[in-house]
């Protein structure tokens, strides 16, 4: 409009300039994965800014997924060594029907190790009972475990199976044998024929963050999988929480 002048370009806030400098050092390898980044004190002295400005720079990079913070230790460049989770391969009968681990297609040269708690017979949560169409008083077998890679917790998983199907079977043991739960269900006459997964990203609860040893600012992927037999009966519900910084999701489709 007449009489208006274009204001000069403003410099970005100091915390953004500091964050941009650190980001460049991360991307060019000057700050490699796993390395500790300069502390708030160092950044404050180096750039002549307040402690809050220095912290805002680090927090912004953490929120972008480039850094992770550990209480009392500082900020570190996120060491992203992805576990490639291919749902279409790992749920195929070709895999579990051959006696292989369902996780063998994902961890590659690293072992994805489940830390199992004793299976237990219990009343299911209400949402599980509703999905399985269980009668009041029906129980489930609950299998609760944490998966670790390189001794680092990366995923929690809780499986629920109708107790009427798996009672007195190897599914009620810690080690279910080769091929896992689905191979045992097939032997019991309830071979999984159809799978459905719902996936959503969210921030973890305090309990989930503690179980997975996650730093602040890291989201999780929450996956609920249902497995149904040929008659459409749901024979397993698996409630999984994955550290999103450690997984890549893959899906293969045919035409």
Could you explain the architecture of this structure?
There is one protein chain. By secondary structure, this protein is an alpha+beta fold. The chain has two domains: 14-77, Winged helix-like DNA-binding domain superfamily/Winged helix DNA-binding domain (Arc Repressor Mutant, subunit A, Orthogonal Bundle); 83-250, Chorismate lyase-like (Chorismate lyase), CATH 3.40.1410. It has nine helices and eleven strands. It has helices at 14-27, 40-47, 51-63, 87-90, 93-96, 126-132, 163-166, 180-187, 206-212; strands spanning 67-70, 74-77, 83-86, 112-116, 120-122, 140-149, 152-162, 194-202, 220-228, 234-243, 247-250. The strands form three sheets. Strands 4, 5, 6, 7, 8, 9 and 10 form a seven-stranded antiparallel beta sheet that branches. A two-stranded antiparallel ribbon has the order 1-2. A hairpin with a 2-residue loop joins strand 6 and strand 7. Helix 1 (14-27) packs across helix 3 (51-63) and helix 2 (40-47) crosses helix 3 (51-63). The longest helix has 14 residues, at 14-27. The model has no long low-confidence stretch (mean pLDDT 85).
Briefly summarize what is shown.
The protein has 255 residues and is of the alpha+beta class. It has helices spanning 14-27, 40-47, 51-63, 87-90, 93-96, 126-132, 163-166, 180-187, 206-212; strands at residues 67-70, 74-77, 83-86, 112-116, 120-122, 140-149, 152-162, 194-202, 220-228, 234-243, 247-250. The strands form three sheets. Strands 4, 5, 6, 7, 8, 9 and 10 form a seven-stranded antiparallel sheet that branches.
């Amino acid at each position: 409009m007449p009489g208006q002048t274009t204001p000069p370009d403003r410099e970005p806030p100091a915390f953004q300039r500091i964050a941009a400098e650190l980001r460049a050092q991360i991307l060019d390898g000057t700050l490699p994965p796993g390395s500790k980044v300069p502390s708030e004190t160092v950044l404050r002295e180096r750039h002549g800014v307040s402690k809050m400005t220095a912290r805002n720079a680090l927090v912004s990079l953490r929120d972008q997924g480039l850094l992770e913070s550990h209480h009392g230790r500082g900020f570190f460049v996120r060491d992203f060594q992805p576990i490639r989770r291919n749902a279409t391969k790992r749920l195929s009968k070709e895999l579990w029907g051959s006696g292989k681990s369902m996780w063998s297609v994902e961890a590659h040269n690293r072992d994805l190790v489940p830390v199992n708690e004793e299976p237990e017979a219990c009343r299911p949560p209400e949402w599980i009972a509703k999905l399985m169409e269980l009668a009041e008083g029906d129980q489930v077998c609950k299998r609760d475990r944490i998966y670790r890679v390189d001794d680092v917790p990366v995923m929690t998983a809780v499986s629920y199976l109708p107790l009427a199907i798996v009672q007195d079977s190897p599914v009620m043991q810690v080690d279910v044998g080769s091929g896992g739960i689905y191979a045992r269900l097939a032997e019991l006459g309830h071979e999984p024929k159809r799978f459905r997964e719902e996936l959503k990203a969210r921030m973890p609860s305090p309990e989930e963050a503690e179980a997975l040893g996650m730093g602040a600012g890291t989201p999780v992927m929450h996956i609920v999988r249902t497995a149904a037999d040929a008659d459409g009966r749901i024979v397993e519900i698996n409630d999984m929480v994955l550290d999103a910084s450690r997984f890549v999701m893959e899906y293969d489709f045919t035409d």
